[in-house]
Amino acid sequence: MPVSEELRNNGVVKNVGEARETPTGAPQEEFATGERSTRNRVARSILDHGPSTVAELAGRLGLTQAAVRRHLDALVADDVVEAREQRVYGARTRGRPAKVFALTDCGRDAFDQSYDKLAADALRWIAEREGGSEAVAAFARARMAAQAAAYRKAVEAAAPEERTEALAKALSVDGYAATARSAPTGEQLCQHHCPVAHVAEQFPQLCEAETEIFAELLGTHVQRLATIAHGDGVCTTFIPKTSKTHNTASTAGRNPA
């Protein structure tokens, strides 16, 4: 059974190389089940938090770094995760960048229960029959406007300094595994998962409409620094510090720098 089907249907990650005696003498079936469960936790942690180092995974999961490396080796062999050089924003510090592990397309698919091909075909039909890219953009804006009703409620109920965090929590409810964190001159909204990433790769209007909605909800211009649809590990949106500004202009797409 393909890895993606195992994750989707059984909530486990394919186990590799476990036809061996257990170190504790436990029944082999119980040992294998425990290994699969832990391996799935490792993959899920990467999904929820984005590309992660061995140390970060060990800290989040309460495992030794040696155990995390063993599970990562198996996940890499199964094409669920891949090793990357850690991206550094701003001034690079001395020393070699830490290696991080990110989900592959195969690994991300394993957590999706989407109909990517159907959605892409539908948007292509709209583009061909109803007015090209502008028709797709109109659809994307209408879709986000409807989806943003719950986000708006959450943001408006929060204090101004807590609105990015409130938006992140609302997005997480919809499966985006979002977090908010401080940045030197503002905040970053990070979406560690995108249920429509494969469709957005073909139709960037989806990302652009989302960025526009974020700007509207937060009452300031925002800048999209990275997107999963463009091959980045995390969708990252920068929200600058603001006091009484209500400018809703947005900068969609990736950071040109």
TrEMBL record:
Residues 1-38 are annotated as: Disordered. GO terms for molecular function: DNA-binding transcription factor activity. This is Transcriptional regulator. Gene3D superfamilies: Winged helix-like DNA-binding domain superfamily/Winged helix DNA-binding domain (1.10.10.10). SUPFAM superfamilies: Winged helix' DNA-binding domain. It comes from the Bacteria. InterPro entries: ArsR-like_HTH, Carb_Metab_HTH_regulators, WH-like_DNA-bd_sf, WH_DNA-bd_sf.
